[in-house]
Structures
1.
Amino acid sequence: MYYYRRLPQFEYVAPGSLKEAASFLQAHPRETRVMAGGTILLHRMKERIGVKKYVMSLKAVPGLDAIDKAPGQVKIGSMVTIQTIADAPVVRRQCGLLAAACQMLGTPQIRSMGTIGGNVACNLATAEIVPVLIALDAQATLAGAKGSRTVSVEELYREVRDGEFVTEILVPVKAGQAWGYEKWAMRKRFDYATVSAAVAIAGTGRVCKDAKIALGGVTLPTRRARRAEEILKGRSLTNRLIVEAAEAAAEDARTGADIHFTAEYKKELIKVMVSRALKQAVSPGKEG
Amino acid sequence: MKQEMEFTVNGEHYTVRVDTRRTLLEVLRETLGLTGTKEMCNKGDCGGCTVIMDGKPILSCLTLAIEAQGKEILTIEGLADGYTLHPIQQAFVESGAIQCGYCTPGFIMSAKALLDRNPHPTEDQIKEGIANNICRCTGYVQIVEAIQAAARTMKRPVKRPMKGPSRKPGGGKQ
Amino acid sequence: MSAETLIGKSIPRIGSVEKALGRARYTGDIILPGMLYGKVLRSPHAHARIVNIDTTKAERIPGVKAVVTGIKDTPRGALFGIIPHTRDHLLLPYDKVRYVGEEVAAVAAIDEDIAEEAVSAIKVEYEPLPFVLTWQDAMKEGAPLVHEHRAKNMAAHYLVHEGNVEEALARSHYVWEHEFTCEVASHALPEPFTALCSFEPSGKYNFWMQTQCPFQVRQGLHNTMKVPLSDIRLHSVPMGGAHGGRSDTPPGAFIAGLLSRKAGKPVQIKFSREEVEDAMRDKAAKVWRVKIGFAKDGAITGRDIFMMLECGAYASSAIVELWVPLLIDEVLWRSPAYRYDAHLVYTNKTISSMMRTRAHVGPMSLDVAFDQVSKELGIDPIELRLKNAVLPNEVVPSKSIVTSTALSESIVMAAKKAKYSQKRGKLAYGRGIGIGSGNMQAMFYMGFRSGSTAFIKFNDDGSCTLFTGNCDLGQGNVTLHTQVAAEELGIPMSTIKVCYGDTELCYQDPGNYSMSATVVSANAVKKAAQDARRRILETAGDLLDVSREEVEQKEDGRYYVKRRIGKGTSVSLGDVCRSAFKRGKPVYGFGDYRARIDYSDFSVDVKQPYNEKTYGQKVTAYSFGTTAVEVKVDTETGQVTVTDIWAVNDCGTVLNPLLVRGQMHAQLSFMLGQGLYETNVWDEKTGRKLTSTYRTYKVPTANETPRIETYTLGIPDPDGPYGAKEGSLGFGCGLHGAIANAIYDAVGIRVYDVPFKPETILKLLKEKEAKEKRKKNSG
């Protein structure tokens, strides 16, 4: 049994351009870990999980750390830190759901170091921002040797190929969107979400035109609570309907037990989080 | 693999050759002898190794030293003016916020980052500001009181205070 | 004597400035010339026979200076255990490994990377054996034996029976019974275990390491290394937390010693966080079954307690867990008939040992009982408590006298401050209030732990150095001892420097163990200061040409002849010290304090189911206190939040309110964590602990901390210095009972298993709802 304090051996590369990064990754797709903020990667490497020959840092690649307002969307570079997003006036104004979720992620240190790209790419329980981006219909730009392409965040893990990495997140700005975000964690400001629910509702008054509900703490195929969304569409968001949708979301969600919580309890939590997030969307500012 | 790097720590300029797999924590403690920054968990869970890099609180155990190239670092050793304690340090001493003292440098650096960002934090904002820091001896009440006391005595920057994190993400219409 | 007393003054902790500056030098900050870095290879098996250890490859790695294994490098049969009965622990085993993370071999190398590489190059051949992780499994017929010489994995048994419990219960008006459990808890100490050893060619081992009991650790090293006590020196260093977790002789120090001797260089071993949590100490999981008889008027008639404790892999010091719950439980509430039947059972887990909160299941069981029985008997729960609360000078079942207690006062005050009676049963659904009491023994009856000796020597200018074997864990013992010495000597605290916890320079002290620092160590310091004062007055008398009795110290700190009119001649302390030295009668002070403890009747014998020699004065002083809490229960998720705590501390005279308050917050934070958040989990397949990080072992953060109001009663204890007794543990041990009662008040469900997990609470809430629905439908 080995207990390490030091990082393992690896070679550190820090390409100075997107092109250089893409070609390095193309050349060593299976031997390279791409590092953004490093909070997740270095933590895992100290536990000797997922150690590869190279660590390719994106810190020296220019242009990945900007937030830009474009027509109909906000573009967020993959190296923008979670805290920068939470603080950015344009995000707070145009994508309140994302700003709120970023502010609720981790701690001041983690938010100052961790990046949106890293959070999206890690595909772990710590990726609290992913359900939020799915609910917002966000897209991710992937860079590769053959140039870049854009995929929806929802499809990201299915889509991403060896040699590609995330360079940008595109969040559409939708007028009249109501939203809610709830996460449950034992220590609410320290722990990553055991489960979470992000909802985005389009509509006027209480009638829901369209709804997106995305979940954290569930298996990939059940990230979207599609049946719950259908229940809401075209109907008035009464408490009874919200409970019905939340129950459907929990029923469909596939959760797994972890060392502290059973799969059944997580399902129960999903129901509560979805219902509270929906109530939040209906009555902004009120306790769920 | 070793590389040469330059950075500024507590106002001193350093040029060092570091193994690229060294963390900033290791280089601060072992290469520069700045042992005030503590290792508790070595994996970012405890906040004991918090330092301020370019104005932001970071976990030096999860930062590769090489990535501090060109950065400005502030550690616990850089806060006081000789033997005159920084108001946060002074408040920690007077409020009984220090017992074993091992987590103290991390708490003080988190508090510094918080007060730089938000000179007038509420109690909840203080608690959120030290959410990454674990203490086992003092509890947290006297630490929060120390940060409140420090906020009162510190010279306030003229900058308008930033809106801190809200307790509840009030949903909203856009 | 200076007019103003230091007793009761809020004096900031000595040493805080260094800590605030980042200049306090902890063990891991020390680098000695030529120092090597040690690394321990640990067992991946929960239980296995060590067949062979091949270190040849590791030895050949450039930079490796020493490799040690149990079979090659340790004295045969040198077992660690704090009493003969529990000498079961080879600090570097060569026969078997008994838990995941146990030490198997170690290396020392010129840097840590090489050391890490080298341990990976050691090949160990194991013969894996079946293992047991719970006491229930460990006691099953045919269960694998952790130690072959202990049948049924029974490590030790302890029984006290006073009066006839069966009869008392049979005659009772009402008998309440229930089973309570608590899980294994961890100290989660901030500073990872670090040991630095420098072996000198003369044969002496110099250690720098965290310990709260340097003399006890020296004894353990002496027993296992087989060298004279004078060849082991523990230097004093500040340490990052202790809380009971640094009471033992750690294998890591033993191994650092072996490596340093072999390599001929100083060796530092620094554990990783996971190593600390897997291979240091935990608090035992407990099952506590209690039957309590009540008379019609609410008086307890008898209590029958059966306790099972999970010892972990070695009973070496876990034996303490068998005794301490008794020392607490038998005291709080009067019980004419009493039986305490406790069993310590081996398991293949991390070793259990001391922890500041270890005794909480006992107090909780009574508080939960009072809450329920008050309804049955129609007696107000506060009245019920007051009826049974122990009073000063009462004798507990095992025959200790409780010399001071303000338990009743603490109950009344906590209830009043929290507005308990006004709120109970009247808060909105989901909100509730509860109350619980606790206590702690100060100093108990084990061998050399009973007394402390202090010494003060003076310099020519009147400044002095105080020597005490009692070390400072951060709780403020140096401040305490300085304050006491300054008070007695009438000199400024700044002129007293304390040399503490160094086994070569100081006299023996029990260590920070069983809350003995205030009652025992500070009393020794007080006596040393009084002794010095006598000598000072004597020399001053000589100088002033009067007898000692005619000398007095005035507010300016100088010594005068008593009752002399006008200013008169005077001498300073410096004059006294210089002149005393010249006269060959240097000023010093020697003080020894022995606790009021009866040793004659103590023994533990596993062969005897009942040992009649368990009676007598076991404890010098008892502290008490009561906490009231308000909780909020999220009825949809089952999560409980404590929103408010009112804590009342019966810690005798308050010597330093600032420090006492800090200790109270510390204890409440520890108790809160164990009550609501912290839980340890083992992998049933591998026997590995899965909760070895702050992420997985969920200690509370600032955001889990409720509003807390702390109060002290200030009723003096006859033995404590100036009437003080321990102030950091006892008062808070009732917090879990208070939370359990508050949960009932909030949502009408009863919880008996600590921690109170959201999932369990949600399940109980659903059961209750279903039951209510059924009732409604049928009704």
2.
Amino acid sequence: MLMDYIKAFLVGGAICAVVQILLDKTKLLPGRVMVILVCLGSLLGAIGIYEPFTKWAGAGASVPLTGFGNVLFKGIKKALTEEGFIGLFKGGFTSSAVGISAALIFSYIASLIFSPKMKD
Amino acid sequence: MQNTKEKVTASDVVIEKDKTAKGEKYNKYVKDMTPTHNIFKNILNAFLVGGIICTIGQGLINLYASWGAGEELSASYGTLSLVFLSVVLTGLNIYPKIAKFGGAGSLVPITGFANSVAAPAVEFKKEGQVFGIGCKIFTIAGPVILYGIFSSWVLGLIYYILLQLGVV
Amino acid sequence: MEDKKSNKMAGKQSILFANPPVIIAGSSVVGKKEGEGPLASFFDQIEEDPMFGGTSWEDAESRLMKRAAELSIEKSGFRQEDIRYLVGGDLLGQLIATSFGIADLEIPIFGVYGACSTMGESMALGAILVDGGYADKVLAVTSSHFAGAEKQFRFPLAYGNQRPLATTWTVTGSGAVVIGSGDMGEETAGKNNKNGVVKIKGVTVGKIVDYGVKDSLNMGACMAPAAYTTISQNLKDLNVLPDYYDRIITGDLGYVGKDILIDLLKQDGYDISSNHMDCGIEIFDRNTQDTHSGGSGCGCSAVTFTGYIMQKLTRKEWKRVLFVPTGALHSTVSFNEGNPVPGIAHGIMVEAC
């Protein structure tokens, strides 16, 4: 159990540290970095690397956006196997539904509650 | 080329007549003149913040698993909880403070994605429900969703073709 | 009366007024953070409410500008209807802070855009109108608001990001001046200010200068070449050396831009290291206020001029100042289309009399 946490901390932290280098050394804006991470995760998922990595590192691999990309491909693969060609157009959204829906729904509710604030 | 390593001085910039070359030289010169954050401190902060967020994620997943949820279900509830926490912290204006310290450590986890959805939703509410929140909620997260869906579709298509050919 | 038409042009880009217009009054209204900075005691009003009683950031900036405009008219001793023309602008969209802010004043207006150099452009055009005899009293005004600028040019405020050290902090503030014709102005300004009056001797209108910088988070580097070009041209047009001025004061180059400017001017044989000042550096304390390279925005040079520089001049601590508001012509559209961020700077020669 403790090992779970140590692995999550070290692996998740390491991924973030690598991305920090990317942010500081290049002029890449955060939006671009997020896109790169998701596409990369999807690719690593497709070539069969990310899933075993997630099994090993747990949240350290699944919480970063690369994990989100992996989930997208995983969903497509599953839908393809179960439903054939149409799965290509279903699996991605199905597997990412919780993350995207939660972000949209909670954010909309937040927009009703909170007001824009000044930075100090 | 060796002289790319050499320092460009203001005089090199001023005497250069060709516009493109002048731009290149000036950009190099500016790079030397511009201070940057202490990269090691930044990396360490990103490591700490990113590590902590993932550890919290692990804790949540383990908690849901201990309540009897299966592997996938507890992962889903973990995601749901992290997104919820991030949106609340964004609304309370705390997430930007974490991000200021943690940099990539708060950008890379799924909480960074949630922050990028919640921040424009709150900011653009003054511009209305449809054209304000409705459109602008996707300003930062939209590209992530589009390219995530598209790239996984392309990879899925390749996988499908290989499947048909009997390669995999 | 002699022909004043022939003798106002100086050198290539400059104007020397035949009958230098007078700055009858100036006003400065700033936000909380600016009010905690080193120049706090020089500002007329410090507003704690970032919304200025409004409902959105854009509305807030409009209210801010209106307040500064009304205050400067009040300080000049005139009434709203005495002001012949208004020259002004801001950073938001199609100058929305200005158009919604000053609509109620019912003063005929020239809306101008020069990014953060707008105060220079407004004052230059105002002085030209006055010296040309087209108006006797002109109001020049500009504003910027941190939150509105972030929202339009960068990210929503609650979005988490790290600001590189070269970035500047947009000043929440608005500055306005009432410019009056020579004789009348001198009399009125003299009444308002026992010590001395500030005259606009001349202007050097800036060119758009593009050295190909594509980094929108390093505005100082984008604008420094423009400031360099304008200052160098001013000195050439007047055939003087930098020490002709007590101070050469740029708008919002910040620490990064300041170093570059001094370096670039040295190549033309001008050393301004001892008398250069930058409003963006003066307005915040970078050690305690976390503003990195300094302040920026239209309001930065405007409130520093109307608050700090005007006082130094009327107290005769400085006699002659070249005020050079700088602007980065940054648009998110042109930037996304891969274009660099060009700069512009206008030089205003002001003197204490």
